[in-house]
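thread: overnight batch results

M.L. [08:02]
morning all. the overnight job finished for the chain we discussed friday. pasting input first so we're all looking at the same thing
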Amino acid sequence: MQNAHPLPARVAGWFGLVAHLATLVWYAASGLLAPGWAVLLLLLVWAGLLVVAIVLLRRRPAYVPLVPVVAALFWFGAISAGEAWLGWTG
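M.L. [08:03]
and the structure it wrote out:
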């Protein structure tokens, strides 16, 4: 049985998954700026995006590299909003 997805799509999918795992460093280090409840919410969002990445890896692997981009934008937006509106400081 042959895999339905071409090799470049599968490689892109695995690259995207590894890149998403790399964003965990930012999410885990958020405690330097954000309160504990916010870090917990951020980690839950990260885990949800991991589930999305795994589902995409199985169904549409070429789209997986978008997941770490969304993760990075969400993290930056959440931290920036917390600093601007909630007074989070490092």
